[in-house]
Amino acid sequence: MGEIKERMRLRAEWQIDKFKDPTGEVEKFLRNGGSIEEAIKRFGGYIGREKMKDNVGLNTGIQYLIDCICGIGTTTKWDNTNARLGVGSDATAADPTQTDLLDATPTWKSMDATWPQRSAQTAEWRSTFGTGDANEAWNEYGVDNGATAHKLINRKVEAKGTKVSGETWTLSLKITVS
Predict the structure, then answer these.
(1) What's the pTM value of the predicted model, to 2 decimals?
(2) What are the pLDDT tens digits along the chain (178 aa)?
(3) Around Cβ 113, how many Cβ atoms within 10 Å?
C-alpha cells in the first residue's frame, strides 16, 4: 500500500454558455433554474461554450471562508441569497492581494434559482446575464458573497469575447476540493 501524502487542493473550472436571445426567453428560463442542455433543445440560438481552468484565490476571501468554517464573527455565506458572479473588462493579471474585480463598473448577478449546488466535493455557482447585462468585453470573473459582505474567493482573468445586446450568457464556476 502506497504512502498517503497530506495535501488539499482547490481546483476551479469556469464555463460560459452563450445564446442568441433577442426576446429574453432563454434568460428567463435559465434564471428560473433550467438546464443549459434543455435551453439548447428548447430555444436554439446556441452560440457555444467557453471553458477556463484555474484562478487565483484572493487572500481576503480565503480568510473570510475560514471564518465561516470556524464560526468566527458574523459571516455571510456564498449561498443562493447572497452569492453573485461578477464579470468585468479589466485584463490586469490576478493577484492574491486584490479584493475585487478591477473593472470600474463590473456587473454582478445573483444566483440562478437552485444555485449554488454541491455534488460530492464540488460546489457550483451559476448566474445568467441577460440581453441588457454586461454588454462589454468579458476578461475577468469572480464570485462574492453579496453586495454588503462583498468578499471575493477568487479572481480569474482570461478574455472570452464581447457580449452584446440580444445575447444571454450564463457563467458558472465549479470549485472542487480534493
Answers:
(1) 0.94
(2) 677 777 778 899 999 999 999 999 999 999 999 999 999 999 999 999 999 998 999 999 999 999 999 999 999 999 999 999 999 999 999 999 999 999 999 999 999 999 999 999 999 999 999 999 999 999 999 999 999 999 999 999 999 999 999 999 999 999 999 9
(3) 13
CA distance 102 to 40: 33
Please tell me the total number of residues recorded for the chain in this structure: 178
CA dist 21 and 96 (Å) reads: 36
Long-range contacts of 111-116 (CB under 8 A, 24+ apart): 111/80, 111/83, 111/84, 111/85, 112/30, 112/31, 112/32, 112/33, 112/170, 113/31, 113/32, 113/33, 113/80, 114/33, 114/80, 115/33, 115/80, 115/83, 116/78, 116/79, 116/80, 116/83
How far CA 59 is from CA of 18, 68, 95, 100, in Å, comes to 31, 14, 9, 11
